[in-house]
Amino acid sequence: MKILKLLIVTLIPVFGCCNEQTVRKLYVGGYTGRDVVNGLHIIDVDFKNGTFTHLSEADAGPSPSYICVSKARGIVYAANEAAREVDGVRMGSVTALKLNADGSKAEKVKEVFLHNGGPCYVSLTPEEDFLLLAHYGAGGISVVRLDGNGLPSEVTDTIIFREEGIRSARGHMATTSPDGKKVYLTTLSLDKVMIFDLDKRTGKLTQTGYGQLPEGAGPRHFTFNHDGSKMYVINELALSMTVFNVGSNGSLTEIQTISTLPEGESRAEGQSCADVHLSKCGNYLYGSNRGHNTIVTFKVANDGRLSLVGHTSCGGNHPRNFTLDPTGKYLLVANTNAGRPVPDLQDPENITLFTIDKKTGLPILPGVTYIARQPSCLKFVE
I need a surface site. Which of 13, 190, 353, 371 has the fewest CB within 10 A? Predict the structure, then answer.
């Protein structure tokens, strides 16, 4: 498959049309350190003109590498991946920041410490009464109860997975099914997606099963189709995508695993997968290839199975995270510039904006880049 090369420009006058909301706020979480002090940035993205305007930044704790946002409460929740020593104990944390009336500024209002190191992922339950956090270093999941104001109040449960010969299960993503009835956790080192029930009274998890992936797959992130009957898991180590049937009881049965690389290519040193998202129409699935530095596009068949459409250059280095805007017409990529350097890229650490071709589903040229330091998570609020 041919890889579309990115054209970097500063202004695209025909990016959007005039009868839709053309400016939206983008919330960006990222790593601190390397002279980066504040890890949360709020940016206006003007889709009509193809421009970015930095509005503000905030202290969201050390390395808020993943965030989620409550529109109803106007709160940003940040998973602080960088662990700290607190009273002689290695701790991670989750930080809550309150947004002002128009969402252009954020202020830290609460931090709750977590045992077992820093979390790498945070999500809200549909009722917005709990946070779910994945721990990469320790290899597990934590549950944090939210009080009536939406602030984190207590850690109600933590489960760490251990198997013989494996130092850490490498928990990577924790969230619920679309209907909120089940909780799922990817464990990269175990090649499993763990399945739980969450007792809302006690805040405790009970494991009910797991979905098994091919050996060495390294499951990282996942998403569901619109009715929740299919789960799509992107595999970090194998550079592949796995499709599961989701049973009425939340069980997972694999029906397909397909490479995220162009046909005939195999994994090269320094390459890995990261993020996955479904198009708004549900007809296309996207994944990010780090090192290969592409966004892969798949067509989704009626039975949920995937077929390769093509690849688009991500416009930077190491596409750790990406998102689609609420209209589904645009795709934005966070290029963290981790891993192997790319000498021929002038500004490999950036956020890149693409339009999506209505006929093919591919992110297409031209693209627009915004230079950003260590971006690792992009969120819009619908």
Answer: 13
